Amino acid sequence: MTNILITRRVPQVGVRLLKEAGFEPDIIETDLPIARDELLKRVSAKSYQAILTTMSEKVDDEFLDVAGKDLKIVANFAVGYNNIDVEACKSRGVRVSNTPGVLSEATADQAFALLLAAARRVVEGHKLVESGTWEGWTPTQLLGRDLSGQTLGIIGMGRIGQEMAKRSRGFDMRLIYHNRSRDEEAEKNLGAVYKSLDELLAESDFISVHTPLNAETEHLLCYEQFKKMKKTAIIINTARGPIIHEKALVKALQEKWIWAAGLDVFEFEPKVTEELLTMPNVVLAPHLGSATEGTRDAMISLAATAIIKVLKGETPSNLVA
Ligand code: DGY
After folding, report:
1. pTM, entire model
2. N or C: which end of the chain has fewer CB within 10 A?
3. Please, which contacts does 219-225 make with residues 24 or more away whose CB atoms are closer than 8 Å?
4. By alpha-carbon position, which residue is closest to atom 7 of ligand 1?
5. Of 8, 107, 297, which is best to mutate to test ligand 1, by the most ligand atoms within 8 angstroms of its C-beta?
6. Among the options 240, 245, 246, 296, which is catalytic?
7. 261-316 pLDDT tens trace
8. Domains (ranges, CATH) in the chain?
């Protein structure tokens, strides 16, 4: 008997794929994550060969110990896998998969939506009209920032960063990027110019974060970095919250070191630093980067297929370990 656990209610297509392959997965039928001790109980209830996780479940030594020695794969329903201790999985011979490629467009769309909303004060305008207090057009009401001819700085020129870059072409923006290493192909295809992080911070009118979260990128943007940005800069984060030191961001916004922010992710998600909730120049979204029907279906299909392949002794292409 092959046992598979899915840690959350997920799009049906993933469950269907597993059933068609002859498996009968156990599903924790909740939309929000269950408490850790409850989760560990569920993980230890059977000897699972595969566990399909979301980015909220921390897969560490404790989790793997509880899961036991039959576990062959942890399939993460996300492209980011900072919730998983990959080395701990490797040392136990547990494969790890993620969902690359299928959410790049949707996530870049969300980043661009936040960029436009922050630049053109869409939420402030909406609230004004909604309040019933709008008295009519004025020459200086809710003036925003132009995109055309302005510089977009992309931090992390992976798949999502490149999709963001593509979108900026349509808005006639100048494009610069910072990455762990230069990507000459992207430079040629997208007309992006490589910059050191400090140069990017100083030259960008818009900064969009698309780097994975790891020990090197945690708090990549802190007080010192916000100080280097233009006073008119707008920062967008659709990657992972802890890449930005949220207290430093609050100070930068309060003291007008920068102009605005568009945030889809938060340092202490789902908790949001209180000051951000009341700032008019901050646009907030509840981690919706990949939240389209088509994208979530594609993500769950990749995760389910990785499980099926590993359990059949095959090697899926989306393994990170
Ligand atoms: C991811 O895939 O990493 C997203 O943040 C989850 O939607």
Report:
1. 0.97
2. N
3. 219/243, 219/244, 219/245, 220/155, 220/244, 221/245, 221/248, 221/249, 222/248, 223/248, 223/251, 223/252, 225/197, 225/201
4. 290
5. 107
6. 240
7. 999 999 999 999 999 999 999 999 999 999 999 999 999 999 999 999 999 999 99
8. 4-102+293-311 (3.40.50.720), 104-284 (3.40.50.720)
